[in-house]
Design goal:
This protein has 577 residues and is α/β, with parallel strands linked by helices. The protein is 65% helix and 10% strand. It has a 6-stranded mixed β-sheet with strand order 6-7-8-3-9-10, with helices on both faces. A 4-stranded antiparallel β-sheet has the order 2-1-4-5, with helices on one face. Helix 2 packs parallel to helix 6 (132-156) and helix 9 (216-268) runs antiparallel to helix 10 (274-284). The radius of gyration is 35 Å and the shape is elongated. The termini are far apart. The model has no long low-confidence stretch (mean pLDDT 84). The protein binds adenosine-5'-diphosphate. Adenosine-5'-diphosphate binds at residues 111, 346, 352, 372-378.
């Protein structure tokens, strides 16, 4: 109860702007509840008038019922409108807020959870939370209506009333057991659902790679297993529902049988009129729904608490920690930066970087070389504060990265990854994403420096060409050059370039190299070199081994002093010949 109250207060924060509508909605429901209580009493009067040939009264009553039933219809129409607006507005608020919070999450939290965790909470759970006041109101007003019918029966006959209360209590106990079992199964179902939708997300994103790997069969099998597993849990829930439905049906029929016997007994004992007995029997038929409504309301409360706790977890819990930044703002950085005795581990027990120190001056071009898994990409990640380090300091323009605000770091550094994400828009729009007021001249200049202008000019639609989802209509090299153009448009001082590992043709390779040459001396450029031949002209090369920089110097100097570097270079030369 305490938990529900806390969650209701939380949901209220997103609904309180629609307070007026909510009040109108509740008032509308109260009116229809009152009508639902009055109608059975009037119906009894109609039947009495019918059986005693009082036709004037019968016609009068029928017109009254017709009028108030239509007031109820209008109420329903109005309440429905209110509930739709309340839901729409609260849903937009909760979903936007949660989306914003997800974007603030630490990368560790993102790494640890599947995409399904975020998709499900951002869609299903927010929807359930936003609908809480409407749902509660719906069930409560139905329950109150049924209670009102009870009251009407009480007025008509107390024995029938007592009998029905007894039967309802029995049914309520049965329903409570069902709700308990259902709650446990729903939790399991949602966890499995998150896993399944995370897998579906990966399947869709990796569709092309799955085909290339010829791995359709194993993915289909895995998808099948996940769906079967999910369905098993769904089946368990449906089994419980079916069994309890059977029990519900049996008790409802038994109630009906016993009620008829009781009514006959009461008529024979002259304590009940036939007309009243008919009305009691008619409305008693609706009473089992009170138990169903109470059961459903309890289901909804559980459902709501589960959704709220899953959303709370993202908003507040330790498991989903948010990124933290300092307050110093640098509008434009010079581009100097330094790692001072930095140690870092993704997982607590295993350091990926160990006491790492190096300095890069503004406008220098520095390449990181070394075997795969040495820690080169990790250095890039740390420079953008994608993860917090455990020991040491990272300085940008002499200021500790932890003291800088987000814009000073990410607004001044661009990463051009191996496979940069290009959005399903025109080339022009992709470039305008990072600079809204981009002029045609600036755009063409950036593409010229990125060695992409000739290719774009050869397209029928030129800069207005739509490039497909993820830039699918472009080659890997073209995607990287478009990302370079994007960085040039953004004019960030530090550019981190993760060279593509996939073999690019020589011409593309040369174009990318030329694009980097064009940026040299104007930007601080760091390159992760997968092919040493592409970085031999860098100002400096840093050789990374097991999370440490073991050697630094120009290409020639490293050839002389580092055996591993020499070996790597020779293997590459041999392969290219
Ligand atoms: P490189 O770029 O030199 O190939 P990385 O910096 O990508 O190397 O990786 C260094 C080590 O860190 C590897 O052992 C890799 O498995 C591990 N690693 C990389 N990213 C993560 C991550 N998000 N979570 C856990 N371990 C990671």
């Amino acid at each position: 109860m305490k938990e529900t109250w806390k969650n209701v207060k939380f949901a209220w924060e997103y609904t309180k702007d629609s307070k007026e509508l909510l009040i109108k909605y509740i008032l509308g429901n109260i009116l229809s509840v009152i009508i639902s209580i009055v109608v059975p009493i009037l119906s009894a009067k109609i039947l009495i008038a019918l059986t005693s040939n009082q036709f004037h009264q019968l016609i009068f009553m029928s017109i009254i019922i017709f009028l108030i039933e239509n007031v109820r219809n209008v109420c329903h129409y109005f309440c429905r409108h209110c509930s739709q607006v309340i839901y729409r507005e609260s849903f937009t608020k909760i979903q936007t807020e949660l989306g914003r919070e997800i974007l603030k999450l630490e990368n560790r939290a993102i790494d640890k959870n599947s995409s399904g965790v975020f998709i499900q909470r951002l869609t299903n759970d927010t929807s359930r939370l936003a609908d809480v006041f409407n749902v509660f109101n719906f069930y409560l007003s139905n329950i109150i209506t049924d209670v009102g019918i009870f009251f009407a029966i009480f007025i008509l006959n107390k024995w029938a009333f007592l009998f029905l209360v007894g039967m309802i209590c029995i049914r309520f106990l049965i329903e409570r057991t069902r709700v308990k079992i259902f709650k446990q199964q729903d939790k399991i179902f949602r966890e499995k659902n998150e896993k399944a939708s995370g897998f579906v997300g990966e399947l869709v994103r990796g569709l092309r790679d799955i085909k290339m790997l010829n791995a359709e069969d194993s993915f289909s099998k895995e998808l099948h297993n996940k769906i079967v597993d999910l369905n098993k849990t769904r089946c368990n829930m449906q089994d419980v529902d079916r069994k309890y439905n059977l029990l519900r049906g049996f008790t409802a029929d038994l109630t009906d049988l016993l009620l008829i016997l009781l009514l006959v007994f009461l008529i024979k004992a002259n304590t009940l009129e036939v007309a009243s007995a008919l009305v009691i029997h008619n409305y008693a038929g609706r009473l089992p729904s009170i138990v169903n409504y109470v059961g459903m309301l309890l289901d909804k409360i559980n459902d709501f608490n589960l959704s709220a706790s899953r959303i709370f977890a993202i908003l507040n819990s330790e498991e989903f920690k948010k990124e933290t930044f300092g307050s110093i703002h640098l509008k434009k950085v010079k581009g100097d930066f330094e790692f001072k005795n930095v140690s870092f581990a993704y997982e607590e027990e295993h350091n990926v970087l160990e006491d790492l120190s190096f300095k890069v001056n503004a406008n220098e071009t520095v390449a990181f070389v070394g075997k795969s898994g040495a820690g080169k990409t990790t250095i890039f990640n740390l420079l953008c504060k994608m993860y917090d380090i455990q020991k040491g300091e990272i300085l940008i323009d002499g200021i500790n990265i932890n003291e800088l605000d987000k814009d000073s770091i990410r607004g001044n550094i661009t990463i051009i990854s191996q496979n940069p994400y290009i959005f399903n828009m025109t080339i022009k729009e992709n470039l305008r994403l990072v600079k809204k007021d981009l002029t045609i001249k600036e755009m063409k200049e950036a593409c010229r420096l990125a060695c992409l202008d000739e290719f774009i000019e050869s397209l029928p639609e030129k800069y207005d060409t739509v490039v497909g989802e993820g830039g699918v209509t472009l080659s890997g090299g073209q995607r990287q050059r478009l990302a370079i153009a994007r960085a040039l448009v953004q004019k960030t001082e530090i550019i981190l370039f993760d060279e593509a590992t996939s073999a690019l043709d020589n011409e593309t390779q040369r174009s990318i190299q030329k694009a980097i040459e064009n940026m040299k001396n104007t930007y601080t450029i760091l390159i992760i070199a997968h092919r040493l031949s592409t970085v031999i002209h860098a100002d400096r090369l840093l050789y990374v081994e097991d999370g440490k920089i073991v050697d630094a110097g120009t290409h020639e100097e490293l050839l002389k002093k580092n055996k591993n570097y020499k070996e790597l270079y020779e293997v590459e030369q041999k392969n290219s010949n």
